[in-house]
Amino acid sequence: MGIYKEIDKYGEYFHSVRLHDSILLLDLKVPTKWEIKKILTSLGSTTQIKVNDQTETHSLVSFYCPFTEKECSTLILDIDKIIKWNKDLEEKNNLLNMKILELQKVFETNNIESLRSINFDFSEDDLKLDEQTTNLAR
Predict the structure, then answer these.
(1) By three-state DSSP, how is residue 120 classified?
(2) d(Cα 116, Cα 78) in Å, to the nearest integer?
(3) 55 touches 62 (CB < 8 A)
């Protein structure tokens, strides 16, 4: 993949890329609430970060590693995983908020007897709760 495509895939988050004393630094401007350290730790990654400027809404984060092919590939994969994890979390929160509004409307417009019979059916047999899998098919 060419450098243009690598940079372009980060879209609005991309800030800069530079090489300093054989260290590659890739800077992203991400929402302040994003999890980064936690994800890198869980990956057991060698990618390092430094949080630079920070506002209430955004942080400028430098991701860096030695300028070798292997380390640079790892850095790119780590950043991709961080973005995916945080975007998925944002989507889950948006879905949760929409479902809460839908549920509130159901509770406002129905009587208590019909509400007592509400069931939640999931398309998958297993639901993950607190990192443990619970089998819903009983």
Answers:
(1) coil
(2) 46
(3) no
Q: Give pLDDT tens digits for 26-53.
A: 999 999 999 999 999 999 999 999 999 9
Beta strands in 1-138 (DSSP E): 14-20, 23-31, 48-54, 58-66, 126-129, 132-135
Per-residue pLDDT, averaged over 66-78, amounts to 95
Q: Which residue has the tokens 């998958």?
A: 124
Burial class for 113, CB neighbours closer than 10 Å (0-12, 13-18, 19+): exposed
Nearest one of 52, 70, 71, 73 to 61, comparing CA atoms: 52
Pairing of strands 14-20, 23-31: antiparallel
What is the separation of C-alpha 106 from the centre of its chain, rounded to a whole number of angstroms? 31
Domains of the chain: 3-111 (3.30.1360)
- Assigned token pair, 64: 């860096």
